[in-house]
Amino acid sequence: MKNKKIIIANWKMNPNSLDKAKKLFSETKKVATKLKNTQTIICPPYIYLGSLVDKNISIGAQNTFSKNVGAYTGMISPDMLEDLGVEYVIIGHSERRLWETNEIVNKKIIEAMRSGLKVILCIGEKERDKEANYFHFLKEEILESLKGVSKNALKNIYIAYEPIWAISSNKGSAIDTGNLHEMVIFIKRVLSDKYGVNTKLPKILYGGSVNPKNTQELFTEGNTDGFLVGGASLDIKKFGEILKIADEI
User: Fold this and answer.
1) Under DSSP, is residue 169 helix (H, G, I), strand (E, B) or coil?
2) How deeply is 98 buried, as exposed, middle or buried, from its count of CB atoms within 10 A (0-12, 13-18, 19+)?
3) Does the predicted TM-score (pTM) go above 0.70?
4) Is 100 a catalytic residue?
C-alpha cells in the first residue's frame, strides 16, 4: 500500500440525498477495487458516513473537532469517527481556513491522531504574488499546523497542496506542472528542515482543477504522489478516468 498512488474524493456538501450518495459510492467502488497501483479514499459528508463505511474501500471525513469530550453542540469528535470505522480525516481545507487558524488546525490534527485517524493536511496560498511571499506563507502553514507532531507520527500524515487560486470552484485552472514540481520540492525541504534529512516524509498530494486531461501530466511532470479531487469526484465518468490513468502510470 505504501507505494501506491493516493486519490482522494472530496465530495464536499454533495450529493443532496443518501440514495444518490450510495449510488455514487457504489459506482466509485466498482472502479477503485479493480486497481492495483492506486488507493482510493472517499470523503463524503458526515451524514452519510455511517451508511458508506466499507471494509473494501477507505473512508475519510471532511473535518473533525479539536476535542473528544465536552459540551460542543453540533461538533463531531475524532473518537466518534474512529468508532464508526472512518480511517482518514481532511483537516485545514481552504474552505474551512476562511475562519480556522493554523492553531485550530494544529489542535485538530493532534486530537485526530490521538484517536488513531490518518490526517490529510491541506495547505495552499490564496494567490501568487510577484515577490514570492507565498513561500513564507506556506512554510508558516506547514510548521504551525504540525507543531507538536513527532517524526514517528508522520507516517499517518498526508500533505495536500491545494493552491486556492487553482480550485475549479473558484473558477481557477490547474497549476503549471513545473510550478507544481517546484512546490513539491519546497514542501519536502520544509519538512526535512524540521524533521531531519533522513526522515521518511509524508506523501505530497495535489488538489486544484484535476481532470482526466491533466492527470497524467500532473503525475509525471508535477512529481506528486496523488490527488485531492473535488468537483470531478462527483462525476463517475471523470473520476473513473482519473483513477484508471493514475493506476496505469
Assistant:
1) helix
2) exposed
3) yes
4) no
For 208, left (φ over 0), alpha (ψ -120 to 50), or beta? Answer: left
The strand pairing partners of 151, in sequence order, are none
Residue 219's nearest CA partner among 227, 209, 229 is: 227
The residue annotated as part of the active site, out of 100, 125, 141, 162, is: 162
Q: Looking at the predicted structure, is the pLDDT value of residue 2 above 70?
A: no
DSSP state of 54: B
Cis upstream peptide for 15 (omega within 30°): yes
According to CATH, the superfamily of the domain at 58-228 is Aldolase class I (3.20.20.70)
Annotation says 144 is catalytic: no
Which of 82, 93, 111, 141 is the catalytic position? 93
Write down the domain spans for the chain. 58-228
pLDDT digits (tens, 9 = 90+) for 53-110: 999 999 999 999 999 999 999 999 999 999 999 999 999 999 999 999 999 999 999 9
Q: How far apart are alpha carbons 162 and 23 in whole angstroms?
A: 28
| Amino acid at residue number 26 | S
Beta strands per DSSP E along the chain: 5-10, 38-43, 58-61, 88-91, 118-123, 157-161, 203-206, 226-229
Residue/partner pairs of 25-30 with CB below 8 Å, 24 or more apart:
25/52, 25/54, 27/236, 27/240, 28/57, 28/233, 28/236, 28/239, 28/240, 29/54, 29/56, 29/57
- Mean pLDDT to the nearest integer, 154-162: 97
- Tell me: the pLDDT tens digits for 182-220? 999 999 999 999 999 999 999 999 999 999 999 999 999
